[in-house]
Amino acid sequence: MRQSAIDLSSECSQAERARIRAAIREHLRPGNFLEIGTAAGGTLKQIIGWTREAGVATRFWVLDPFTYFEDQLEKVRANLRGAEIDPDEVEFLIGTTDSQLALQRALGTRFSAIFIDGDHRALPVTKDLQWAEQLEVGGLIFAHDYCAKFEGVIWAIDRFLARNPGFELLGRSETLVVLRRKDDRLVPVDAAELRRARIVQTLLKWKYSIRKRLAR
Ligand SMILES: C[S@@+](CC[C@H](N)C(=O)[O-])C[C@H]1O[C@@H](n2cnc3c(N)ncnc32)[C@H](O)[C@@H]1O
After folding, report:
1. Name one Pfam family in it (predicted).
2. CA of 216 to the centre of ligand 1 (A)
3. In whole angstroms, what separates CA 104 from the centre of its chain?
């Protein structure tokens, strides 16, 4: 069983959480904060505390299929209650970008921050980066597990930055990267980009599988 399911802890390291806290203090503007992939809500409850501490009025949203472990959504809600946060103040979107983005686009929902920590393969991360279209100028993107173990995350984030000069890399701590939207330029993720991400994901899968066989 996952550690976060047992003790409802954060899956980010102390240094990564310190980086998130600093970015909130220095750069976060009031608005909606979306966490994509919450596990037990261990990082979420801390982020909520840090926005309160910084006095930044923020409404929280969580996007997750809630199939990570048994009773995941109930455990997240209990975890929040344990930190004196009313879970009814968090908007839970049950699903993935595929099932939830179109509605929020149609509603014109805007975000001041997006924390990407769901499915770490190249295609899902590329899809999650489509929420950047809903990000206010000055808004932040946090991405977790930007590391050799998750090459799909590195590929998707690097590709996003290379295609989008309207975004800058603010900083990095261990596997946590922080991006900021500088202006309103954004190159949308189109069908060709999704095909490219799918190919990269397949190539990386083959690479891991060949490496595993060779190591036997
Ligand atoms: C690594 S954990 C998240 C850890 C959490 N952010 C933290 O810091 O404690 C991954 C989470 O992503 C969710 N997930 C998996 N695929 C997803 C997807 N396509 N979209 C959103 N969430 C996803 C899982 O259910 C799980 O809750």
Report:
1. Methyltransf_24
2. 31
3. 16
Distance CA 135, CA 186 (A): 10
Q: Which of 115, 119, 125, 173 to mutate to test the pocket of ligand 1 (most atoms within 8 A of CB)?
A: 119
DSSP 91-103: EEEES-HHHHHHH
Domain coordinates in residue numbering, the chain: 3-215
Report how far residue 179's alpha carbon sits from residue 158's, in angstroms, rounded to the nearest whole number: 11
pTM of this prediction exceeds 0.90 = yes
Closest ligand 1 atom, residue 41 Cα: 9
For residue 56, the CA-to-ligand 1 centroid distance in Å is: 25
Half-sphere exposure of 89 (CA within 13 A, CB side): 14
Which percentage of the chain shows pLDDT scores above 90? 96
Question: Which of 10, 45, 64, 125 to probe ligand 1 with, by most ligand atoms within 8 A of CB?
Answer: 64
54-111 pLDDT, tens per residue? 999 999 999 999 999 999 999 999 999 999 999 999 999 999 999 999 999 999 999 9
In this prediction, the residues of the chain whose per-residue pLDDT falls under 70 are none
**Pocket of ligand 1 from Cβ distances under 6 Å:** 4, 10-12, 36-39, 42-43, 63-65, 67-68, 96, 117-119, 124
